[in-house]
Amino acid sequence: MSARRIFARPARLAAIAPYLWMVLFFLVPFGFVLKISLSQTAIAQPPYTPVFDFSEGRAALAAAFAQLSFDNFRLLLQDNLYILSYLRSLVVAVTSTLILLLIGYPIAYGMARLPQRWQAVAMMLVIVPFWTSFLIRIYAWINILQHDGLLNQVLLTLHIVSAPVVWLSTDSAMYLGIVYSYLPFMILPLYATLSKMDSSLLEAAGDLGASPRQAFWLVTFPLSLPGVGAGALLCFIPVVGEFVIPDLLAGSNSLMIGQTLWLEFFTNKDWPVASAAAVALLLLLVPPLVLYDRLQRRQLDAGR
Amino acid sequence: MARAATRLTRFNMTSLALGLAFLYLPIVILMIYSFNASRLVTVWGGWSLRWYHEFFNDRAMLEAAWMSLSVAAVSATLATLLGTLAAVGLARGERFGGRALFSGMLYSPLVMPEVISGLSLLLLFVALNAERGFWTVTIAHTTLTMCFVTVVVQSRLSALDSSLEEAAMDLGCDPVRAFLMVTLPLIVPAIVAGWMLAFTLSLDDVVIASFTTGPGSATLPIRIYSEVRLGVKPEINAICTLVIALIAVIIVIASFASKLSNARGESAAPL
Questions:
Q1: Cβ contact (<8 Å) for B113 and A241?
Q2: Does B94 touch chain A if contact means CB atoms closer than 8 Å?
Q3: Chain-chain contact of A139 with B228 (C-beta, under 8 angstroms)
Q4: Does B220 score more than 80 pLDDT?
Q5: ipTM over 0.90
């Protein structure tokens, strides 16, 4: 115990460098996003009017506060484009999380029931795509889904359709891409809770007369809810801000908020509005992020 | 009767097989098409290395590939160093002020939308008047990937029995020596796996790199991305296959490292 305490001091000292790094490159940048979201758009380089200038002391700071502008946020609330892209992001994230749960659960469940030796193999097989490039995996689907791609060729050869179907630039293609990319994020937390489950509980349920189906819904599923929560959050949060998948696979008539932010930043060069969009997106994500953080910490504590 | 509840059913097997086929089939198809001699992606013109040849003569692509590999190597090394230190602080530091903030900062980038991380880092670099290019992308990738390293190494450290360190200190080691001689050798596999993960994540990123890079220094994913937006090109199939092959080698090394870790301790890192 005492040795442990002696060890804790240098361990804390070790954390100083990464702590400072994260403050400088993770926390402070959010301050800049917030600051620039409150400044005016200007045709300049960089394209915004400076809000604070710390070198001019306190009086200047007070003057700057008076100058803060909520115009960018007002714009976000008034312009339909932004409201629609927020709603679309939420709808897309909720829908894909549900699809992922529906597809991921049976796979994780199957994995958890494999013989011990095969579980490790199956887990490896699920993790490997997570390592392979995300962009490449989306590109692989473009190959398949394009006008004269493999899918249409197969469908035409089998006479299921008489003319090539438009798959690219549709919402279905986007959902397919999202499900494909995020499936490992859903499977792994589900598998983690399902494989730890005590099988004698199910045997007890069976002995007490429950059919396998009843046992699943009354025992297995309720006990797997922490995994369901972790998997859902792990998919929902990044999908809300997703950019690459909707940009490459969905049509351009309705945008997700990540795409709107990108458009404002790179095409319109309107940094303040892009920053305001980022702040609004972040506010949307705070509740699920806090929930996720709490789940993570509970799991780490339980693992100790 | 009781065993029926935990048996592997046909439904279990089918969903598992279909799930894995869904995950792997598109990649396999892409790799096969990269050897297609025909310019038309859809017509099979026989096996050929033509598109690999094209890639190795494409100066801009090669430069982007070199930029990506060096960013990935440098940022993965920095991230492994910082992430391991952070993991030691979290797993062994017990309570300290700002611990919740620290772990929050380390866990949120794992799920934070990349557009936000990219935009916020760019605004910082602009405010600091930093010249954008290799180093800004490297710093951005280090910040993102060190969080993944922390998670991998921390879970390994938490699974380790800290009584080994205590025993070493009872035998007269100071804490730093105890860490270097007892703990570090035991977590090396997790550190190696963390480096590999950081390397592949950096090699994969488009969004953060697009925000933080400067003119004239595009990474490979940025170039691939702009080509893909214009449509499918056989050369891209070949580049993607090469990247997959590189990552496959890395995975084999990483899984070897984690097997080593399994042999020495009971539980492996989650990734």
A1: yes
A2: yes
A3: yes
A4: yes
A5: no
